[in-house]
Amino acid sequence: MQPTSLNFKENASRALHDTQLQRALGNVKTGFIVSRAAARAALPEFDELRAAAAEIKNHVLENLDIYLEEYERRVLESGGHVHWARDAAEASQIILKICQDAGAKTVTKGKSMVSEEIGLNAALEAAGIAPVETDLGEYIIQIRHEAPSHIIAPAVHLNRDQIEKDFRDLHRSLSPERDLSQIGELVSEARTMLRQKFLAADVGITGANFLIAETGSSVIVTNEGNGDLTQLLPRTHIVIASIEKLVPTLEDTSTIIRVLARSGTGQEITSYTTFSTGPRQEGDPDGPDAYHVVLVDNGRSAMLGSEFQDMLRCIRCGACMNHCPVYTAVGGHSYGWVYPGPMGAVLTPQLIGIHEGAHLPNASTFCGRCQSVCPMMIPLPKMMRHWRERDFEQKSSASLPKLALHAWALFATRPVLYRFAANSAARVLSFLGGRKRRFSSLPLARAWTKYRDLPAPAPRTFQSLWQERERKRMRHGR
Amino acid sequence: MADKLLAGAREAIIAKVRTSLGVRGDEPGRRGLVQSRLRNPSRNLIPERANKPKPEQLKLFQSMLEKTGAKVRRLRSLKALPEAIASLLRENNLPMRLRAGNDAIFDELRAQPGILEVLSGPAEADDVSGLTHAAAGAAETGTLFLLSGPENPSTLNFLPENHVAVILAADIVGSYEECWAKIRERFGAGNMPRTVNLISGPSRTADIEQTIVTGAHGPKNLTVLLVGS
Predict the structure, then answer these.
(1) pLDDT value at position A29?
(2) Lowest pLDDT segment from A419-428, B38-47, B129-138
(3) Residue A84 is nearest to which of B10, B176, B192, comparing CB atoms?
(4) What is the pLDDT of residues B55-84, one digit of tens each?
(5) A163, A272, A285: residue with CB nearest B153
(6) Residues of chain B with C-beta less than 8 angstroms from the C-beta of A45
(7) Nearest-5° Cα angle at A358, A112 to A303
(8) Cβ–Cβ of A271/B64 closer than 8 Å?
(9) What is the 3-state secondary structure (H, E, C) of chain A?
(10) Residue B3 — pLDDT band, cuts 50, 70, 90?
């Protein structure tokens, strides 16, 4: 998809005035946060498990070249195929070719963020293949031609009446008199409509939460069961996964599973966690005849060994955005690309370039909640600061922030000059502040005073008050 | 064309990973470390709640499942299975018919025609109820481990609107790790059946206004028949 991250400020200001969106975002602030806190409280070892989970991923990342080779070997031994894609275009091309070789007309899809990242649906549609998103949230945004606004709740920006209207517009074969006022009725209608698609699909595409080197298995973590119908019913199952999804063993997978759902939806574990290994085996009455894994790099390998390596531990639970004061105010679409919230603010500049994504690491209050709830203990604020530094370094020396900082440095490194300037400014501003002691408009500070008053400073600076205090003390000999 | 274009991708990605990490890939220490970790999988921290005596373990298993909206019924022995399934279907006004694989645990059920009809094979689109036998269960979260194969086709766990799962108390353990140990014992280290389904509740979604609704795409009703003590 075409990023609009450069317009973050405009996107965000529009979002703040969108009453539908603000109503929908209210659900995030209550639902996810309360259930995560309860799940955490119910498991005394939760924080120790987070540390263990982070440790596992650190080990994998340090040895990723070997884990990829070992994993590939196991997939081949179990009768599957492994494909490698350097970037988005290659990944789409590989998947399109597998679909075409399978003679596919309809393709069902389980929820996959990397599929959004590479723009797979557009590539399939351009070749005359119809991709059908089967996760309820993804189905809703697909029919609305929108991008997901949350990594685990793609349609969290919508309210039921909007979805009811979409269903009435799209599902024309159903009675116009039907009642769709309840959420249960909307879910049931989607179930009926998608059931036919599951049964008709030639290829099923899922993502992967984990790829296990020990067994060559791919794992999906879901609640609806759509991912399972997607991968069990068609003759071909394609798994698309980025290279950092590797984990060593079933035991290591179990450890990370213990922190994943608890951090995301606040469940103890999701309804379904499915381990798929190769195509159907001898004697199996169901399951796909062909199993393909498409490993996507698309910028990950460049993050290794850099200050952004820790980001590759991310397991896409969504906790950082659920707890982010910026995300919960402006919603996911403001971020302008596939990954929103704090994890998106770190990942997006890497994947689409710092020029396009420069606003996102700045869209943070640096309150640190994202890091404190991250199950993989990723230092998200630190990495946002790294992006700010890089962005700053790349700016020309004539840019306004650079000039302003140079001006400030001129004073800050000269104490006499600094004190003189600070004292004069304090006196003048304090006088101008008048009896109200605040400014409702001020030249050079319009961006601030447009939305709130600027308090006038005290007539004397802290330094001068301190000096006077010291002088008095000396005089009294204390 | 495409194949030729992409031929170098594997090597290029692995080379880039190595350059970024500052490694060569032929260091014996690193490869040895990875291989020994894969050959001798070791357990990480396991929550204390997985470590309970049997009666409490079964209670935890049951209460965890019930918290998600699944129903659990306790049976004294496998002999009670046909009547338990029949009354379950009757009470829920369901057709006295369901489909199961050729797992030997259902032989008794098939040998008693007249009570209910047991169809065979993988699930079909109009099946109302599916019956499968879980190979293991983890008490820590009330999680069933179901293995694909002719004994218990995986589609039976997902396609019918009602899923009935049978599990023996003897197969319930505390943690996920103990379940994997059972599966390794059966299939050999590193090997897996095509599909392993960990099921911990009925199908659900909260994609509309964060409101939980059961029966999204998979079964609306999950009933677990827990046999023995």
Answers:
(1) 79
(2) A419-428
(3) B10
(4) 999 999 999 999 999 999 999 999 999 999
(5) A285
(6) 45, 47-48
(7) 55
(8) no
(9) CCCCHHHHHHHHHHHHCCHHHHHHHHHHHHHHHHHHHHHHHCCCCHHHHHHHHHHHHHHHHHCHHHHHHHHHHHHHHCCCEEEEECCHHHHHHHHHHHHHHCCCCEEEECCCHHHHHHCHHHHHHHCCCEEEECCHHHHHHHHCCCCCCCCCCCCCCCCHHHHHHHHHHHCCCCCCCCCCCCHHHHHHHHHHHHHHHHHHCCEEEECCCEEECCCCEEEEEECCCHHHHHHHCCCEEEEEEEHHHEECCHHHHHHHHHHHHHHHCCCCCCCEEEEECCCCCCCCCCCCCEEEEEEECCCHHHHCCCCCHHHHHCCCCCHHHHCCCCHHHHCHHHHCCCCCHHHHHHHHHHHHCHHHHCCHHHCCCCCCHHHHHCCCCCCHHHHHHHHHHHHHHHCCCCCHHHHHHHHHHHHHCCHHHHHHHHHHHHHHHHHHCCCCCEECCCCCCHHHHCCCCEECCCCCCHHHHHHHHHHHHHHCCC
(10) very low
Chain B interface disruption, residue of A118, A223, A239, most B CBs within 10 A? A223
Q: Where are the domains of chain A?
A: 5-302, 414-475
User: Å from B104 to nearest chain A CA?
Assistant: 16
What is the model's pTM?
0.92
Instruction: Determine the residue of chain A that is closest to B27 in CA distance.
Output: A66
- Say what the pLDDT of residue B223 is: 98
Q: What is the 8-class DSSP label of residue B160?
A: S
Residues of chain B with C-beta less than 8 angstroms from the C-beta of A266 = none
Binned at pLDDT 50, 70 and 90, residue B4 comes out as very low
Just give the CATH number of B50-227.
Answer: 3.40.50.10420
B2, pLDDT greater than 50 = no
Which member of B44, B141, B217 has the closest CB to residue A252?
B44
Rounded to two decimals, the ipTM of the complex is 0.97
Contact B13 A243 (CB under 8 A): yes
**Predicted local confidence at residue B136, as pLDDT:** 98
Asked if B2's CB is within 8 angstroms of A94's CB, the reply is yes
What digits encode the pLDDT tens for the residues A138-160? 999 999 999 999 999 999 999 99
Q: What is the pLDDT of residue B1?
A: 40
Taking the CA of residue B67 and the nearest CA in chain A, the distance in Å comes to 10
Band the pLDDT of B6: cuts 50, 70, 90. low
pLDDT digits (tens, 9 = 90+) for A201-245: 999 999 999 999 999 999 999 999 999 999 999 999 999 999 999
Q: Is pLDDT of B188 > 80?
A: yes
Token pair in block for residue A369: 């909640």
CATH for A5-302 is 3.40.50.10420
Mutate to test the interface with B, among A45, A65, A280 (most CBs of B within 10 A): A65
Residue pairs between chains A and B whose CB atoms are closer than 8 Å = 278
Low-confidence ranges of chain A (pLDDT < 50): none
Chain A residues near residue B159 by CB distance under 8 angstroms: 229
- Residues of B within 8 A of A140 (CB-CB) are 207-208
Domains of chain B: which residue ranges?
2-39, 50-227
